Amino acid sequence: MAGGSAVRGMKFPSSGTSQGSTREQHGQSSGCYKVFSCPLCPYKTARKDLLEGHVRTHTGDKPFSCPHCPYQSADRSNLRRHRQRSHEVMTAAAHTTDNQAPRSQWHFGQ
């Protein structure tokens, strides 16, 4: 979509604040200038992806689905945590690379 993005039919502009305004007018003399505003509440952010995730709290949209069960999430990190806790057997071998010894074989101070 040119000029913005959409979450369930809601459009977000590719830039946010009104022309001619300054940081001082908005009470932000330093730090990040927030340009993306939620159309449903006072939430503002400098990152479009964070706004899209925030809007899901209003819409109830859950685009991230577990391939192993009916679980759905509005946030990718919550799906990742669900899969780790519910579907993967965590072993010492799963935490190693080809040239790294399992933690049980680590020796410190010897």
TrEMBL record:
Bias type Polar residues, positions: 14-30, 94-103
GO cellular component, one term: nucleus
Gene Ontology BP annotations: positive regulation of transcription by RNA polymerase II
InterPro entries xref list: Zinc_finger/UBP_domain (IPR050688), Znf_C2H2_sf (IPR036236), Znf_C2H2_type (IPR013087)
Entries under SUPFAM superfamilies matching the protein: beta-beta-alpha zinc fingers
Residues in C2H2-type domain copies: 36-63, 64-87
Pfam family, one: zf-C2H2
Name of the molecule in the record: Snail-like 1
Source lineage: Eukaryota, Metazoa, Ecdysozoa, Arthropoda, Crustacea
Gene: sna-L1
